[in-house]
Design a protein that fits this description.
elongated; binds S-adenosylmethionine; Small_mtfrase_dom; Methyltransferase; methyltransferase activity; S-adenosyl-L-methionine; methyltransferase
């Protein structure tokens, strides 16, 4: 089998069946239409019978092709024997979705369902998509020893971990997922992945990892109909349990990144709900709500995802789901990132925030710094802060706005040009500090100088400054210079 997959990979690469090759061939219009699940423009762009067009039709669009139009060297008989295609009456049809991925490898999953297709099988293995890319972008880029991908599906996170982790373990409750994931890894030339079947952390009982990533079955519904997205546990309990159990599988200094959904329940602040999951884990935690949907939007999204719009059961499924949300007093469903870090501190910190704006990618390139800033701000005493040499972070800009001709600005904003690209409104003291803090001098004498300039009592300013500066440190506008 591995020999077949090696030859297939060579042929896919030689034919230009790569992310860039497909993108170029489809063009913007067909690619955008595909993101709306409309295949007609893509079928038109690939109907010339040439090798690349034929491969895109067969494996990306899931359309049957003429066997005689298949690229020379495509081992159809062997692929049919391996169950990857069927050949009948001179026509070849794929049994799987085989897509190039941004890491340069390939992913094998079940065929995408589109409106009008037969219903999904309950053990459907979903292909990589936006959420997969989201988690891959979030995960720390730090090289690690042992990494775990929990709920590997088609194996996409392993493609991202490969080369960064010395050992990779991937788990899934669905045996079919592991079967297809193994194909993905072999086709991507990745060897040595330890694949284990089982639920949640059961397959790695008693083991610890330096990095844990999971794009879990986070969808919240009244019935666990599809393993690829629903755990079968009630409400958002699966994500809660993942958060609570993850620290028990982190090695000292280890990090865990999860995608999650959480409920907004009438009368409860969602921050308390998610913060409650993180509190008591013994880890530093950072949860970010990237989006929130109302119950109807959410139900529509996931019924569409399983191509159930337009089916006879659509209204009934929609109604049941919405009715269940109502009975649980659900007002919305949050989507976001959760990161846990086992820093070994006896005083762990949890930050829960809403932040939906575009960020610099990959977040994994600076996520360790984000966590570091949150913990530094939390752990510094006022006295330590006043004695510390503060530096304004690289790329922070100051924006001053106000009525034309006014002597003083009405509003001063500090804006990050990189990283999370946060912006925050500040007062004159913080703005003045941003202008002079280059890490050379401790904070206290700088505050004294500013107090003199603006005519304020230096002792008052020293007393007030830590409370104002701590959030700016936590959010990465200032950092403590160690140089
Ligand atoms: C949303 S898919 C994620 C697939 C892939 N890791 C990605 O990033 O695209 C969730 C995966 O979790 C698996 N899963 C569902 N229930 C699980 C459980 N109780 N324990 C472990 N994995 C589970 C599903 O089979 C599915 O492959």
């Amino acid at each position: 089998m591995n020999d077949l997959l090696d030859r297939l990979r060579e042929l896919l690469l030689d034919t230009g069946y790569t992310i860039d090759g497909v993108r170029e061939r489809l063009g913007d219009v067909a690619a955008t239409a595909l993101s709306r699940e409309e295949t007609v423009p893509a079928l038109r762009a690939t109907g010339q019978g040439d090798p690349l067009g034929t491969l895109i039709r067969l494996w990306w669009l899931g359309a049957p092709v003429e066997a005689r139009g298949a690229p020379a060297g495509l081992p159809l008989e062997e692929l049919a024997a391996a169950g990857l295609v069927t050949v009948e009456g001179g026509r070849v049809a794929s049994t799987v979705h085989l897509q190039p991925w941004e890491t340069g490898g390939y992913l094998v999953s079940d065929r995408k369902v589109r409106p009008g297709d037969p219903a999904l099988r309950p053990d459907h293995v979903v292909g990589a998509g936006g959420a997969s890319a989201n988690l891959a972008q979030l995960a720390s880029r730090r090289p690690v020893g042992r990494a775990l991908d929990l709920g590997t599906g088609c194996g996409v996170q392993v493609l991202h971990l490969n080369g960064r982790a010395e050992e990779i373990t991937a788990t899934d409750v669905n045996p079919r997922a592991l079967e297809l994931a193994r194909l993905s890894w072999a086709l991507s030339g990745i060897t040595g992945v330890e694949a284990r079947r089982g639920s949640m952390f059961d397959p790695v009982e008693g083991e610890r990892f330096d990095l844990v990533v999971s794009n879990p079955p986070f969808v919240i519904s009244p019935a666990g109909r599809f393993t690829y997205r629903e755990s079968g546990l009630s409400a958002d309990d699966f994500c809660r349990d993942l958060v609570r159990r993850a620290p028990g599988h982190l090695a000292p200094g280890g990090t865990c990144h999860l995608l999650a959904n959480w409920l907004h329940v009438d009368g409860e602040d969602w921050r308390d709900r998610v913060g409650g999951w993180l509190a008591g884990t013994g880890c530093d935690g950072w949860a970010v709500q990237r989006d929130v949907q109302d119950p109807a939007e959410y139900v529509e999204l996931w019924l569409r995802d399983a191509a159930e719009q337009g089916t006879p059961r659509y209204r009934e499924l929609y109604d049941d789901w919405l009715g269940w949300f109502e009975s649980e007093n659900v007002t919305g469903i949050g989507f976001g990132w959760i990161t846990l870090h086992d820093s070994g501190s006896l005083d762990p910190v949890v930050r829960v925030e809403e932040y939906g704006l575009p960020v610099e990618l990959p977040v994994g390139g600076y996520v360790d710094e984000v966590l570091g800033a949150i913990t530094t701000a939390h752990r510094l005493t006022d006295a330590q802060l006043l004695g510390a040499r503060l530096a304004v972070a690289e790329g922070v800009l100051e924006e001053r706005t106000g009525p034309p001709g006014a002597e003083d600005p009405a509003r001063i904003v500090l804006r990050q040009t990189g990283g999370l690209r946060r912006s925050t409104r500040v007062g004159t003291v913080e703005a003045a500090l941003a202008g002079v803090c280059d890490g050379d001098y401790p904070l206290a004498p700088l505050l004294d100088a500013i107090a003199e300039l603006i005519g304020e009592d230096p002792d008052d300013l020293r007393a007030k400054a830590p409370a104002v500066l701590r959030p700016l440190i936590a959010e990465g506008f200032f950092h403590i210079s160690t140089g």
